[in-house]
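Our preliminary data section would be incomplete without showing what the modeling component actually yields. Below, a chain of 296 amino acids is followed by its predicted structure, encoded as tokens that our downstream tools consume directly.
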Amino acid sequence: MVKKIKIGFFGDGQWAYNSAKNLLKNKFIKINFFCLRANTPDKKLLKLANRSNIKCFNFKNINMLNNVKKIKDFSSDLLVSVSYDQIFKKKIIECCNLGIINCHCGALPFYRGRSPINWAIINGEKSFGITVHYVNQKIDQGDIIIQKKYPIKKKDDFKSLLNLANKKIPYLLLSSINLILKNNVKPIRQSSISKIGSYYKKRKNGDEDINWNQSSIKIFNFIRALSRPGVVARTYYGNKIIKINKTYEKFIKNNKNIKPGTITSVTKKFFIVKTFDSAIKIKEWNGSVKKGYLLK
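Predicted structure:
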């Protein structure tokens, strides 16, 4: 007979909300408490906790001794992290007999760190991964419990892959907890896949600026990687910011003597910009532009 497992749930955003709802439906899982981000606690998760009569925290520093004690007092078997923004240190990692597991939207050991979906599209990857792994004292380097990869098609953008992740993460998290419940985890060391892997930093303000001196395919990938509901790629028309959300997939042969960033054609439905190797057709943007101006 499978015993019931008691967990502490750390999370933020739609991934976490969908995952928590899914776990609450399972009769073999009991959520002891929720812990939300300190500065921007998730309102939907907070309401879910209140409806379910579950204690909810938002510690400024999860690793402070008095906060670790509060977590220990719940006697949870396992801690679960879904888009939580603090790094767990040794005392938290060791406070439950089954440890901590984390959901990461990257194919570990590759795409450790922040914004993995954005980076995968920017880099022109043909697939992206979702990994559920144990947490240790190194960022995103714990043993893998489950990992699944999903194709990235040309029609995909940040929104479509984010929506896919929102659907898949709850299922993969529950599958991982079930393996732990049944003592059937076959952990995979990340070093057995790659001794180096890759790490990407959180994207910051200014990273959304388009470089028109790049090839059309790189610009195409960049724009779809930052599409809504992300920050959206941007360029400059004079002193005005133009945000570009979508482009066409097919590129246009263009005069090589034209400087990259030059608008060569404008209609109500699209405008065309010269790139390093061809030209790209913009189909969704804000603001007004005119033919012949250089986008810096």
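The first strand starts at residue 5 and ends at 11. Helices lie at 13-24, 43-51, 65-72, 90-93, 116-122, 158-181, 216-225. Preliminary results of this kind motivate Aim 1 of the renewal.
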